[in-house]
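Integrase catalytic domain-containing protein
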Amino acid sequence: MKAASLGSFTFTAHLIEVGIDASIGTVGDALDNALMESQIGLYKAEPIKPRKPSKGLSDVEVATAEWVDWFNHQRLHTAIGHIPPTEHETNDYAQHQPQPAGVSP
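Tokens:
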């Protein structure tokens, strides 16, 4: 058995031992990668392809930073009430904080 295979086997065995499912699908299906592939597709279509050709790595780094900022802080997400993800996260976090004694919500 190769070292990488042994490591994967050991990792999978540990996940099973502690009751964690290692995968939502089976080996060879696309279910594990569907969300990430969708995200990568958006990334390529939105900040990368329209700016071609990039003059170098710094162009890609700047485009990526700008897109991640927009994606997290400005994009209105329909599934969470047409607000940016960071606003939703802040609201959710605030709702789940313990209230100090004597303070009503």
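The chain has one domain: 7-24+31-95.
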